[in-house]
Design a protein that fits this description.
alpha+beta, 4-stranded mixed sheet, 19% strand, GTPase
């Protein structure tokens, strides 16, 4: 079963969440999580993203970087630069959207389109 694993370049927890909110408001150009910027406003998740991630298009899993590193801890885990979106399948974890790729995605709609395109390719390959 394939799924996408989204890893935000942020740490879990209430205090870290408030620090991220403050950083996004005070100095948005230096905020280091482009995935957060795409999917969340200053205080909450964007409605279009929330609606999309609740679809059954593909399984999706979401983690802060510290949660991901704890859950997937392995000596064979590559060193990722966060944020990152990974494909999890029977071959293991493979990159789908790397940190630098987020610079090319200018909106949450663009992120959704990229995911939908990927799923369509998967569906086409299954039918072949």
């Amino acid at each position: 079963m394939r799924k996408l694993i989204f890893v935000y370049n942020a740490k879990a927890g209430v205090v870290n969440n408030w620090l991220d909110i403050a950083h996004k408001i005070v100095s948005p150009t230096t905020y280091e999580c482009d995935l957060c910027t795409l999917t969340h406003g200053n205080f909450s998740e964007k409605q279009i993203w929330k609606k999309f991630r609740n679809t059954d298009l593909i399984d999706m899993e979401f983690h802060h970087k510290d949660e991901f590193l704890k859950k997937y801890k392995s000596k064979w885990l590559p060193k990722y630069t966060f944020p990152v979106v990974l494909i999890s399948d029977k071959q293991g974890l493979q990159p789908f959207i790397m940190s630098q790729d987020f610079k090319e995605i200018d909106s949450v709609e663009g992120l959704i389109e990229r995911i939908e395109h990927f799923v369509k390719q998967l569906d086409a390959n299954v039918q072949d």
